[in-house]
Amino acid sequence: MACAGPAGGRQRPVLHAPDPQAMLTPAIHSAPQLQPEPEPEGDSDDSTALGTLEFTLLFDADNSALHCTAHRAKGLKPPASGSVDTYVKANLLPGASKASQLRTRTVRGTRGPVWEETLTYHGFTRQDAGRKTLRLCVYEDSRLRRRATPLGELRVPLRKLVPNRARGFDICLEKRRLTKRPKRLDTARGMSLYEEEGMEAETSGEERGRILLSLCYSSQRGGLLVGVLRCAHLAPMDANGYSDPFVRLFLHPSSGKKSKYKTSVRRKTLNPEFNEEFFYAGHREELAQKALLVSVWDYDLGTADDFIGGVQLSSRASGERLHHWRECLSRSDRRLELWHLLDSVPPQLGD
């Protein structure tokens, strides 16, 4: 595809201090309206026969979000004659297919559907742009079949997107090929036996997800405010391909004060929004000697909850985790937000 290109170098994460009037609200509230002229890409006899898809991509680097606006499709070729009901499904690759799966509404009764709908991936970073690919597939939403019929797909490497600049595309749809999953995945958590070609390689080393945390040392209250804002791309833990996630917080070592909290449970989602805030009392010097253990769990009624992923913020951490912790404790009354990748093992307690 014409989007392929060298990835940008790794840049230091930017800690944002949001407007205090909009405490603990998602960074993006509305879809971008930019619609630049589309760029025609790809052309062959086989793919052209399936139609084309027009869409716009915008990497909002300031708010760590990727916006994909599906405009319209032209020349679709459904299996049967007559009108067709269609929608667009998006996936970020590599990654858990359910966790990164978004879709538009269904437009009914036309072979030239117009959606004008924006799908947003939160927690999308410069590192993601350098290594991930966006797959868009147009499906026929038949009321007579249990499974939707794919009419064609396309893939766009995201490494050539310019941050904060919308780019339009008008790309020919290609055939979607299926291949059987390896035996070890055949019956895992009720997943389908078939998936698109190349998925086995894409899901190896699959992420557990990521979490958006805010930290603020409050001089007025004399302690640390921890905001659990949202999670993105969580690993599915239930047979239905989803999870019922909630977040646990633990400030270690405990000093006899309130040290453990947990959020409410969000049902059947891999991209939950929490927007909940918790308070730990203590002087700045005292907190600097502690560690904040954050873990995401899948709630199970009557059985033990399943661990999804975790992260530890402390002066003993490294990279972005250490940077977030130090920046928070070095400033007062300024809320700092940062996305963190989840580890596949629970955070360990130090000495």
UniProtKB/TrEMBL annotation:
Where in this protein does the record put region Disordered? 1-48
* Record-annotated C2 domain positions: 49-173, 207-340
Q: What keywords sit in the KW lines?
A: Calcium, Metal-binding, Repeat
The keyword Metal-binding is annotated on this UniProt entry? yes
Does the keyword section mention RNA-binding?
no
Q: Which CDD domains match?
A: C2A_Rabphilin_Doc2
Give a single Pfam family match: C2
Q: What is this protein called?
A: Double C2-like domain-containing protein gamma isoform X5
Q: Which organism is it from?
A: Mesocricetus auratus
